[in-house]
Write a structure and sequence with these properties.
This protein has 611 residues and is α+β, with helices and mostly antiparallel strands. The protein contains 20 helices and 26 strands.
């Protein structure tokens, strides 16, 4: 029969066991860790001492941590695991607000980071936001049921003791974050990797688990700056083996048998979808929504399909193309579009795509490019960091701080770095000023070979809520336009009102010319996506039709004749985008979409064939 303590340990491990194992914390410490957590025991002060550096560098007056126990510390002693408190925990979008609204926090961060206070609070906050990336740590709480915004990484600054622990390539300790469920609070756990004597330095590896020498150099740049411009800065080529692994490249789809012409059926076309909004909005008299997926002619899915053979066996149309990860994930989109760059002018990317680096596979190349640009064009070295495959601007940021960008790669979600558009075309809003905006175009792809692309006539506009300038890059309402998923004010304007206002604000730039350049960009994008076979492009599949949402901005540039122009810049391509707004402001939207995709009927439909 188990004791009370046994029951307590069982419950502790039931809640925290997976976390302990994934963090690599030796089982030796689990029992004592439970005791310290339950009793809120912070006993590091008995084992360690903070003292000034004495390594001969007279300019370095920073503190370090040494072993203070006269008997030293044994790595095998189960007592030698220590709780380290977090001085500040936050999400990126909260950082400025926290520092501005809590003067004591700002004071503490300045002291902890050794920053001399400036005269005004704005400058003080800016300085902490710049310096904190040498101190930041991160973790995220895995909860698949939570809203995506609540699953974003948490960042934290260790307390004064934890922040004084220096880096070493041969560390004496290891430190990992730990979330204690009963208290709903995060700590860091510190434990020795070797036996230590009195006075020995307490160090940890800031690039833990990274063994590649070049990648370690990159990860340690915030603390050990060095010139990395010797690295070739063009993004590396992708191997087919990698592309096949990360893309939903098609498996063999069988005989390639003919599909029925749905427009010639002597009955209604049966549609299966799990989206109740689509089911309700589809009122076209040629379509019938059914509950049985197997009897449907059209399967309208909102999740990725990997095996198309089941749809081919049923002669069933599906609203996606094999291999479309190459255009709907941001890393692969940039790679595919690079094939359409003008090599004659030594371009890496086409003129309509921002320079983009995959920070998972091309981090050294990005760092080299950033450092070169810092010397050549320091005012135009701003980057938007965003995850491969998240929408709504989740877990993204705008930064000109290389230390920050490097540290952002430590989160669990892989990211790309896209050169920020520093000279966007702006839209004037009364009582606010000139703000950023982006445009959402709905594009319908009915065939890859031959290429057939339609665009929905109506486009949608999203606006920032603060006048634009290339500063305070962490201010969401200034640098982002996605306002319909949070507490931000959503400003809505119809496309007709928008065009009228743009013609008034920019009389020398006719909208029909801008619109034509946008359509040209859309065609070039899909040509880039279909020029090469999978896994370097979309696969043709007779049963595939798809709807995409292309987000773009306009930036000031010059055309081939040297005249100033509005250049469209592609931001991303979204699979099966949210079209509630489209249906709300243009009833019959889904009727138009389904008629075009599955009946090849565009008569009196609000679509334009581009190619």
């Amino acid at each position: 029969m188990g004791t009370k303590q046994d029951c307590g340990q069982d419950e502790f491990l039931k809640v925290h066991g997976a976390q302990l194992q994934s963090s690599g914390i030796p089982k030796t410490f689990w029992g004592k860790l439970q005791e310290k957590l339950e009793s809120d025991t912070f006993d590091a002060g008995k084992a360690f001492l903070m003292t000034y550096n004495d390594e001969g560098n007279q300019a370095d007056h920073s503190l370090k941590v040494v072993v203070a126990s006269e008997d030293g510390l044994k790595a095998a002693d189960p007592n030698n695991i220590f709780l380290v408190d977090h001085a500040w925990t936050y999400r990126l979008k909260q950082a400025r607000g926290h520092l501005t609204e809590m003067p004591q926090l700002l004071d503490r961060m300045e002291r902890l980071m050794g920053i001399d206070p400036a005269e005004d609070n704005h400058s003080r906050v800016d300085r902490v936001l710049e310096c904190m990336w040498r101190y930041n740590q991160t973790y995220n709480i895995a909860n698949k049921e939570a809203d995506p915004k609540d699953r974003q990484p948490l960042w934290y600054i260790l307390d004064e003791f934890g922040s004084c622990i220096k880096h070493s390539d041969d560390p004496s300790f290891r430190m990992v974050p730990f979330f204690y469920m009963p208290g709903q609070v995060g700590f860091s756990l510190l434990y020795p990797l070797k036996d230590l004597e009195y006075g020995d330095d307490v160090t940890r590896d800031y690039a833990n688990h990274i063994t590649d020498a070049l990648q370690r150099d990159i990860s340690l740049l915030p603390w050990q700056p060095r010139d990395m411009t010797f690295i070739h800065s063009d993004p590396p080529e992708r191997e087919d083996s990698y592309l096949n692994r990360v893309c939903n490249a098609p498996r063999p789809v069988g005989s390639g048998a003919d599909y029925p012409d749905l427009s010639s059926l002597d009955r209604k076309v049966k549609v299966f979808t799990t989206d109740t909004f689509v089911a309700k909005a589809l009122t076209h008299n040629k379509f019938q929504v059914v509950d049985n997926a197997e009897e449907a002619d059209v399967y309208w899915s909102f999740s990725q399909v990997d095996d198309y053979r089941i749809f081919e066996s049923r002669r069933q149309y599906i609203n996606q193309f094999p291999g479309e990860s190459v255009i709907v994930t941001k890393d692969m989109l940039a790679f595919i579009c690079a094939t359409y760059a003008d090599k004659e002018y030594d371009e890496v990317f086409p003129k309509w795509l921002p320079v983009t680096f995959d920070l998972h596979t091309a981090r050294p190349h990005f760092v080299s490019y950033f450092q070169k640009r810092a010397k050549e064009s320091p005012k135009d070295n701003i980057w938007m960091i965003k995850p491969y495959n998240l929408s709504r601007a989740l877990d993204s940021c705008v930064s000109d701080n290389l230390n920050q960008i490097i540290r952002l790669t430590e989160t669990a979600v892989p990211k790309v770095a896209c050169q920020y558009i520093t000279e966007p075309v702006l839209y004037h809003r009364d009582n606010i000023g000139d703000v950023k905006f982006d445009l959402r175009y709905i594009v319908l792809l009915t065939s890859v070979d031959p290429l057939e692309v339609y665009v929905y006539e109506t486009f949608y506009i999203r606006f920032a809520n603060v006048a634009f300038s290339n500063d305070h890059l962490d201010v969401y309402a200034k640098h982002y336009t996605v306002m319909n998923y949070g507490d931000e004010q959503l400003h809505q304007v119809s496309w007709q009102e928008f065009v009228t206002a743009m013609q008034s604000q920019y009389p020398n730039h006719k909208w029909d010319v801008v619109q034509r350049s946008i359509y040209d960009m859309i065609v070039e994008f899909f040509k880039a996506a279909t020029t090469k076979p999978p896994p370097r492009g979309l696969s043709d599949f007779k049963g595939s039709r798809a709807m995409y949402g292309l987000d773009l901005m306009l930036k000031w540039s010059f055309n081939d004749k040297g005249f100033k122009c509005m250049q469209p810049m592609l931001l991303e391509c979204n699979f099966c985008p949210d079209c509630h707004r489209a249906e709300k402001y243009g009833p019959g939207f889904f009727n138009d979409v389904f008629s075009t995709l599955f009946l090849n009927d565009t008569v009196d439909r609000r679509v334009i064939k581009l190619v």
